[in-house]
Amino acid sequence: MNQKHIVIVEDETDLLANYKATLEKHGYQVTGLSTPESAENYFSTNSPDLVILDVGLGLNADAGFQLCQMLRQQSASLPILMLTARDDEIDVVSGLRLGADDYLSKDISMPHLLARIAGLFRRQDVNQSHVQKAQFEKGDLRILIDNLQLFWQQQLVDLTVTEFWMVQSLARFPGQVKTREQLMKDANVYVDDSTITSHIKRIRKKFQKIDPTFDQIDTVHGMGYRWKP
Question: Contact 92/184 with Cβ under 8 angstroms?
Fold first, then answer.
């Protein structure tokens, strides 16, 4: 079995060593980095399977956000997990807006962290198993499952992995209301309702950059969301 490679960027030495030891114990290959500079140099020539980022690194309070943005520009499909003591709503929204797939507080238990990492990898495995149609087309929408790519009016929509699976979940069943819990399950993420709402808002904006008249995603108040039939 191919060993998954995880990179952790964390400036607290003891914490980094603890994460690294635990993940290696569970079968992952782990690279630990402690400064934004070393991370930028590393990512310029290496492509891991998943990245875990702290937000504040050294004297730069937003270094993790900057690295997240850089990594997302390099790859739309790389799973990125923010793990930080900064868990205010504005920080969570900022991380997700910049392309993070998940945003966790450092007080999370290790079993919970391992479960979230496994969930992100499971999502990739579903894609590789070919259990779903490799391609789906409906009107102006075209989804390439194997490539994790989605097109609207023949233009690529720049979605994160989480956003891709949410749109795919909605669009495959037009008219059917998907609850926030169902969207979390389909995207293999476990976050609060406000985070799902933030994801949907960003998804709409990304479609509207291509098509200002886009209004395919309805909010069904008290229930969830649906893709218009």
Answer: no
Tell me the pLDDT tens digit for each residue of 30-70: 999 999 999 999 999 998 999 999 999 988 989 999 999 99
| CB proximity list for 13: less than 8 A, separation 6 or greater | 34
- Edge-to-edge strand ranges of the sheet holding 141-144: 135-138, 141-144, 149-152, 155-156
The span from the CA of 29 to the CA of 23, in Å, is 8
This prediction's pTM = 0.59
| Side-chain half-sphere exposure of 153, counting CA atoms within 13 A | 10
Q: Can you state the angle between helices 36-43 and 63-74, rounded to 10 degrees? A: 10
- CATH top-level class of 132-227: mainly alpha
In the DSSP assignment, the letter for residue 87 is -
3-class secondary-structure state, position 125: helix
Can you give the residue ranges of every domain in the chain? 5-128, 132-227
- pLDDT per residue as tens digits for the range 83-107: 888 777 777 877 877 888 888 888 8
Asked whether the beta carbons of 49 and 79 are under 8 A apart, the reply is yes
User: Which superfamily does 5-128 belong to?
Assistant: Response regulator (3.40.50.2300)
Specify which residues 31 forms β-bridges with.
Answer: 7
Find all residues with CB under 8 Å of 10, minimum gap 6, and list them.
16, 19, 32, 33, 34, 52, 54, 57, 83
Alpha-carbon gap, residue 89 to 36, rounded angstroms: 24
Which carries the bigger pLDDT value, residue 7 or residue 73? 7
